[in-house]
Amino acid sequence: MRQNNNYYLDIETNGLDPKKNKIITIQYQQLDRNTAKPISKLKILKEWESSEKDILEEFVNSTNILNDYEFSFIPMGYCLNFEHNFLKEKSLAYGLPEIDILSKAFIDLKAFGVIMNRGEFKNSGLDKITGKPQSGRDIPIWHEKKEYDKITEYIEREAEEFVKLCSWLYREMPYALARFKKENRIEK
């Protein structure tokens, strides 16, 4: 029996430098392994309700992220290198076990965004290819002004748009593979 260990994973920060800035939210949602449709509610851990260290600890304690089995927590996201750098830096800074999301199985849709944008990185962001209304550039401003409801709304919309794209790719890519094999006379 297949387990559903695929998780949408994203973070928000108050800047771009993991050495200087902090993680202000960690959000994750379990997705169906075969459809990428949500099978749990979106969980948002908020630094402003506790602390950066607390949300990191809660994330570790409420998921299988540190399990030795490679497929126990499969992060799915868009530009996961950003999450990786922050999670790794901050877990070590707080003396927690190292969170390294790129050393095991992961699914990063950024490559699909670039390919869907004809190989161009510019304008291949999730906000450019989906209904996500904007990039996260205002997150640090909202955080400083304590406009936490705006951050939460942004996170919910971003997760929704990621899941739409991911589910679409799960549905459409098998057909693209079949066409590719047929066009190239591959019989496997």
Write structural notes for this entry.
This protein is an alpha/beta fold and 188 residues long. The chain has a single domain, classed as Nucleotidyltransferase, domain 5, CATH 3.30.420.10. It has 6 helices and 5 strands, in the order βββαβαβαααα. It has a 5-stranded mixed β-sheet, with helices on both faces. The longest helix has 36 residues. The protein is globular, with a radius of gyration of 17 Å. It starts with 5 loop residues before the first strand and ends in a 5-residue tail after the last helix. 30% of the residues are buried. The model has no long low-confidence stretch (mean pLDDT 95).
**SSE class:** alpha/beta
Return the CATH architecture: 2-Layer Sandwich
Report mean pLDDT, rounded to a whole number.
95
Instruction: Please state the overall shape, judged from the principal axes of the Cα atoms.
Output: globular
Helix content: 40-55%
Strand order in the largest sheet:
3-2-1-4-5
Order of helices and strands: EEEHEHEHHHH
Q: Using the coordinates above, name the CATH class.
A: Alpha Beta
Which descriptors would you attach to this protein?
Nucleotidyltransferase, domain 5, globular, 5 strands, 188 residues, 5-stranded mixed sheet, alpha/beta, single chain, 6 helices, 14% strand
Helices and strands, with pairings:
Layout: E1 6-13, E2 23-31, E3 43-46, H1 52-62, E4 74-77, H2 80-93, E5 107-108, H3 110-116, H4 126-129, H5 139-144, H6 148-183
Parallel strand pairs: 1-4, 4-5
Antiparallel strand pairs: 1-2, 2-3
